[in-house]
Design a protein that fits this description.
single chain; alpha/beta; D-Maltodextrin-Binding Protein, domain 2; 5-stranded mixed beta sheet; 3-stranded parallel beta sheet; 12 helices
């Protein structure tokens, strides 16, 4: 009798426990389903608020750039903005299926303009730095440059490096608020440093003999030497810095960042179209475009 009672009690406990576990499992399923719905809703809201979605809905990609950085963005004789970054922006807009609108912007306000949504992206030869990255996000680098020196030809044979130019009697020019200024102040502790609003003003100071040298981005310096600087300046072309350039966007926008990095990878690795290589050769190797701006 006791054995039968024990068996019956065991069966009751098993059934009760099974019911309890079943209810717990069902409750867990409902919680997971609710969580999945919340996650899906959050993802949808993130996409709807993303810059990429707004660009597609607007039908226009707005790009902020300062058109004074040869050969990346500059104005030709007719006032058109041309250059490496312009070609990239046109390709980007085409792949998005939208129109391109370039918004010329002064360098000292270009990040503020992005944050306040005056444009969707900065494509203006901007160096990726940790300080800038605190305010904005960057795509993967699309090209790597460095700071080099353009020196007045009067010093030919006397100085061959930044270290040799660091003398109290010498004046070094650079552009205000760019990585060139940071590099200049890092490498020159004794020489006098003067800064200018534009790279053209800085290099003019060297051409006139008012400054002895200028520190600025290698592509610009190479281009300048192929034109106006060929018989007046010396290019000390060993880079002082490592500077990857990237496209800048607002923070908190993973969809746009993902699209940009995939676009860049496709442009660089697709050897059928070979867009990146052709664009590089057009602006950084071939100098025939100089006739359009000089």
């Amino acid at each position: 009798m006791r054995i039968i009672k024990y068996i019956l009690l065991t069966i009751v406990l098993v059934v009760f426990t099974g019911c309890f576990d079943s209810k717990s499992a069902n409750g867990g399923t409902k919680a997971t389903t609710t969580g999945e719905k919340s996650s899906g809703k959050a993802s949808l809201e993130l996409w709807e608020n993303s810059t990429l979605n707004k660009i597609v809905q607007r039908g226009e990609l707005r790009v902020g750039m300062e058109p004074g950085y040869m050969p990346f963005e500059m104005k030709d004789k007719k006032g058109n903005i041309i250059g490496f970054d312009v070609d990239m922006a046109n390709k980007m807009a085409k792949d998005m299926g939208v129109k391109l609108k370039i918004i010329p912007t002064a360098w000292d306000g270009i990040i503020a303009g992005l944050i306040t949504e005056k444009y969707d992206i900065i494509m203006s030869g901007m160096t990726i730095t940790q300080q800038r990255n605190l305010k904005i996000n960057f795509s993967n680098p699309y090209i790597v440059v460095g700071q080099t020196i353009l020196m007045n030809k009067a010093h030919e044979g006397k100085y061959n490096s930044a270290k040799e130019l660091d003398k109290p009697e010498l004046t070094i020019a650079t552009k205000l608020g760019v990585t060139g200024e940071i590099a200049t102040r890092k490498f020159f502790k004794k020489a006098k440093i003067v800064t200018f609003e534009s790279e053209s003003d800085a290099v003019s100071e060297v051409l006139s003999g008012k400054a002895d040298a200028m520190v600025y981005d290698q592509p610009y310096n190479v281009t300048f030497m192929a034109g106006k600087g060929s018989d007046k300046l010396i290019h000390l072309d060993t880079p002082l810095t490592y500077e990857p350039l990237g496209w800048a966007i607002r923070k908190g926008d993973p969809d746009f960042l993902n699209w940009l990095n995939n676009f860049l990878r496709q442009a660089q690795d697709d050897k059928v179209e070979d867009f990146a290589a052709k664009t590089y050769n057009k602006w950084l190797v071939d100098k025939s475009w100089l006739k359009r701006v000089q």
